[in-house]
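tool_call predict_complex ligand=adenosine-5'-triphosphate
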Amino acid sequence: LTYSMEDVVGLCKRRGIIFPSSEIYNGYAGFYDYGPLGSELKKNVKDAWWKNFVMMREDVVGVDSSIIHNPETWKSSGHVDGFSDPMVDCKETKLRYRADQLFYAPVMVSGEAEVLGYLCVQEANEADMAKEAKKQAKALLKSLDRKGETVQEPFDFREVVEATEAEMAQIPSPGSGKPTLTMPRAFNLMFQTQVGALSDAASVAYLRPETAQGIFLNFKNVLTTSRQKIPFGIAQIGKAFRNEITPRNFIFRSREFEQMEVEYFIPPGDEVWPAFHQQWIDDSRAFLLSIGLQEELLGWDVHEGDKLAHYAQACTDITFRFPFGEQELMGIAARGNYDLSQHSEGSGKTCSGVGTLEAFRAFLNSYAICFNSVGLEYYDEQTKEKYIPHCIEPSLGVDRLMLALICSAYAEDEVGGEKRSLLKFDPKIAPIKVAVLPLLKNKEELVSVARDLFDKLRRRWNCQYDAAGAIGRRYRRADEVGTPYCVTIDFDTIETDNAVTIRDRDTTDQVRIPLKDVISYLSERIDG
Ligand code: ATP
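tool_result ok
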């Protein structure tokens, strides 16, 4: 890649795509706001996904569930007990780190490796983290006045996450002689809140860390109201919240983000899921390409061994090569019937737990689920069999996809000897589809034709009217935010040919099109 994350973040800020949240209060780590162009882009990305996976498919329907569910949901799903990352505290700095994002640096002493201690490194990307670890180790050597000794390549801290407390204590740290980091411990990533006027244990609720559970909770409702038969899917787009220990890499890992998920319900059986799983991998990849991700930046990561969740039969990530490395863009998991079974069982338990006041309150809260707890089973009319359906789950982060789209579209070239940076967005997702430019801003005849055309075009697409500055500068402005077409109204338009010039962002080629044909010309290219 020829550009850095700083280029991308700078462009997003400068052109009103993405801002740090609460910026006037110095921001808030892990939270971002989408500006005028970012919110358009986001809407287009979500619309494209919904159109592809819901509108265009007869076997997928949508839901829009609440963000806060009955808290029993998260006990049944396993999130209360198991949705955590390993965390360590630095005793010196009082900062917290995700253990699997730390490095420790052994230092060569007379040819032998000596561990000087753990280094608290929290940097933008892995290459920077390693560099920072080395820098800290060197500074350490200097402060200990140990000249002539060299620093080895830092190790991934994950290698020592499994260490026992006794083993950790063996590792000396500089100065104090004691480890500067606590032992890794599980940190639950769910944000807690309280619901209702009473503030006690029974009122604790959670902001959802994924949209998927809202789908499972509605399985029976959708089944009985939408006349779908297995195999079929339920889709949802919405906010999710995770108290990430170290949010990083801009909107790649934030604490509030959006997900686009499908639960695709299929019959049980080891011979059944592989074909569906593969189909969803293929369909997901085709979608990503259709909205403009560069094929050469996409990759795979097939989960194996420990990486595969205990209940899952398979999981394949589609990865993307970001400026900070190749990372998960989305996951496509074959989840068995874990979730529906857990909710069948969990909602049943809540009903029988009535006895104490607390349990009674929990019972009232979960009444809706109890009502359905008769079983989240499916009766297959053809085979006359009853079963809890299995499912395939493609899960894609909206914000992560937006970052991938921006990185994929980011380009720099030269036009007429001048450097330009542009976003080569696919017209489907471009925040502004067309810019309308009268050659001069104070020539009434030009302006009136331009405004008239602008009013017609904006009924169909998000367009921009730009009359300020030299025409070349206006083209650059449009290129930089990824506007695929600029329509210029000049003196020939009003005096001779009743036609306009349409300029293509990527090739900078210009064509002359009669005014009456402008909409159909653009429509062919924007709407496909
Ligand atoms: P990671 O390993 O990166 O933490 P994960 O495997 O926990 O991600 P999933 O639970 O599978 O992620 O979530 C599905 C998708 O949701 C991810 O592929 C990603 O696109 C998106 N996502 C998850 N966590 C975040 C986050 N903190 N910020 C932005 N997007 C996220």
